[in-house]
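B., you asked whether I could sanity-check this one before it goes into the benchmark set. Here's the sequence:
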Amino acid sequence: MKKKQSKKKIFKKKKNLSEKTAFSNLEKSSEKLIAPKRSTSGIPKYVADRMARRIFFTAGIPTIMGMSVFVVSYIIVTKNIAEIPPSSTIAISALFFLLGLAGLSFGILSASWDKEPGSLFGIENITMNIQRAKAAFKPASQNFEDNN
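And here's what the prediction gave me:
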């Protein structure tokens, strides 16, 4: 029978560095890793703020109303004001939630990309913003088609 060979541990001698030297080396190495920021071609802040305001009104208000349908229905039924079938409550709530979903899309697509704000409803911006969205996804779909 063979004896198991023991593994010998090799200890390396640690370098004793002063605190100044250790931190200066750390700063030097972190400077090399930080790359300069590239300019992005994303949505400008003023456009994003405009979209957020539109989304609040066109999606937020119908969504809040969709949730309040349950509360109002509960109050009406518990106070014996009227008999409301649960299916009606769910249908009305679903209608408000769908309206909120449509408002989300409308709020994003109707925002003007100009520095000065556009019209109140922004209907004239929808076709232009749909074209921008298609153009943003076009390079990704072209790369996918090239790989296949």
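One thing to flag: The chain has a mean pLDDT of 80. Otherwise nothing jumped out at me.
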